[in-house]
TrEMBL record:
Topology class, membrane: Multi-pass membrane protein
Family: Belongs to the CobD/CbiB family.
Residue ranges of the TM segments: 55-80, 86-106, 160-181, 297-317
Location in or out of the cell: Cell membrane
Entry-linked InterPro entries: Cobalamin_biosynth_CobD/CbiB
Organism per entry: Thermatribacter velox
Keyword Transmembrane helix assigned: yes
Protein name: Cobalamin biosynthesis protein CobD
Domain of life: Bacteria
The protein's role, per its UniProt record: Converts cobyric acid to cobinamide by the addition of aminopropanol on the F carboxylic group.
Record bears the keyword S-adenosyl-L-methionine: no
Pathways involved: Cofactor biosynthesis; adenosylcobalamin biosynthesis
Keywords: Cell membrane, Cobalamin biosynthesis, Membrane, Transmembrane, Transmembrane helix
Cited Pfam families: CobD_Cbib
Length: 326
C-alpha cells in the first residue's frame, strides 16, 4: 500500500502542477527558503572581505540550511506518517506539486513563441526575461529563439527531471532538499567578485545533485525525439559529443540533446549586464533558428516531462521505496 501511495504522490503532484502551475505566494516553500538564505547571508557574510572566511562560511550556510531543513522535515514527516497519515500524504503531494515547475516553464516558453509568431520582437524579448539571466534588449529574432530553446532545455532538468528524480528516491524530503540546494545555487552560486568564495559550496553541491538527473534529461529528450519523429540518435550523440564543452558540468547534457533533436546549433555570444561572455557551440546548424524551433522544443519538453514522470514514478513504486522509502 505504501508503495502505491509513493507512486501516487508523484503522479498527483505532477498532474496538479500541469494544470494549475506554481502556487505562487507566501506559502510557497521556495519563498521561505529564499528568505532564509537572505537572512543567513546578512548574518554570516563577513563585513570585512576575507576570502578564507567567505569560503568557510559558505559551507556553514549550506550546512545550516540543508541540514536544518532535512532534520526539521525528516522529523515532522516521521511524526505525521505515524500519527496523521492523511495529513502526511497531503503535505507530500503539496511538496511535489509546489516544487515542480513544468507548467510555468512551458508557459514561459509559449509566451515567447506567441510573441514572435505575432511579429512582436519587443514583447518576445520582454517575455524572455522570465527564462534567462542574459541581456535581452537588443537580441535579434534568431538570438531570442536560441536563448529560449537553451533555457527550456536547461530548465527541463532543474524544473522537472531532477525534482522528480529526488522525489522518487526520498519523497517530499528529497524534492525539498533538492530545491533548497537549487535555490542556494541560484542566489549564491555566482562566479562574481562577491560570491566566488561564499557561493562555492552552494554551486558545487548543486552540481553534485544534478549529475545523474542531467544525464537522464538528455535520455528523456532523446526518447521524446523518437516519439515525435525526430532523430533520437542525433540527440544522444550530440549530447555525448558536445556536453563536455559547456562551462557547467551538467547543463550541457540537456542543451546538447535538445540541439541535436532540433538539428540546430546552440551557444555563442551572450551579454550579462553589458559584459560579453562566449559560450561554446553545441550541435550542428542543420536547420535555422526560427520561431518554429521554440514550438518544437516545447513539444519535446512536454513529452519528455510526461515520460520522465512515467519512468521515475514506476521507479519510486518498484525500486525507490524498498531502498530509500521515507
Amino acid at each position: 500500500m505504501f508503495e502505491v501511495l509513493a507512486l501516487l504522490r508523484m503522479v498527483v503532484g505532477f498532474v496538479l502542477d500541469s494544470f494549475l502551475g506554481d502556487p505562487f505566494g507566501r506559502w510557497h516553500p521556495v519563498v521561505w527558503v529564499g528568505k532564509a538564505i537572505e537572512k543567513l547571508e546578512r548574518l554570516l557574510f563577513p563585513q570585512h572581505r576575507s576570502f578564507r572566511k567567505e569560503f568557510i562560511l559558505g559551507f556553514v550556510v549550506v550546512f545550516l540550511l540543508v541540514g536544518g531543513t532535512g532534520l526539521a522535515y525528516g522529523f515532522l514527516g516521521w511524526f505525521m506518517r505515524k500519527n496523521l497519515p492523511l495529513v502526511y500524504w497531503m503535505v507530500e503531494i503539496y511538496l511535489v506539486f509546489s516544487l515542480l515547475a513544468f507548467r510555468s516553464l512551458w508557459l514561459s516558453g509559449k509566451k515567447v513563441f506567441l510573441a514572435l509568431q505575432k511579429g512582436n520582437l519587443e514583447e518576445a524579448r520582454k517575455n524572455l526575461r522570465s527564462l534567462v539571466g542574459r541581456d535581452t534588449e537588443h537580441l535579434a529574432e534568431w538570438e531570442v529563439v536560441r536563448a529560449c530553446v537553451e533555457s527550456l532545455a536547461e530548465n527541463f532538468n532543474d524544473a522537472v527531471v531532477a525534482p522528480l528524480f529526488y522525489a522518487s528516491l526520498f519523497g517530499g524530503l528529497g524534492i525539498l532538499i533538492y530545491k533548497v540546494v537549487n535555490t542556494l545555487d541560484s542566489m549564491l552560486g555566482y562566479r562574481d567578485f562577491r560570491y566566488f568564495f561564499f557561493g562555492f559550496a552552494s554551486a558545487r553541491l548543486d552540481d553534485l545533485l544534478n549529475f545523474i538527473p542531467a544525464r537522464l534529461s538528455a535520455l528523456f529528450l532523446g526518447i521524446a525525439a523518437l516519439l515525435l519523429g525526430k532523430s533520437p540518435k542525433r540527440a544522444l550523440t550530440t549530447a555525448f559529443q558536445y556536453a563536455r564543452f559547456h562551462p557547467s558540468p551538467n547543463a550541457g547534457w540537456p542543451e546538447a540533446a535538445m540541439a541535436g533533436a532540433l538539428g540546430v546549433r546552440l551557444g555563442g555570444v551572450n551579454y550579462y549586464q553589458g559584459k560579453r561572455e562566449e559560450r561554446p557551440f553545441l550541435g550542428e546548424a542543420l536547420r535555422e533558428l526560427v520561431p518554429e524551433r521554440i514550438e518544437e522544443a516545447l513539444s519535446l519538453l512536454w513529452l519528455g516531462s510526461w515520460f520522465a514522470l512515467l519512468v521515475l514514478a514506476l521507479f519510486a513504486w518498484r525500486v525507490g521505496y524498498p531502498i530509500f522509502g521515507i
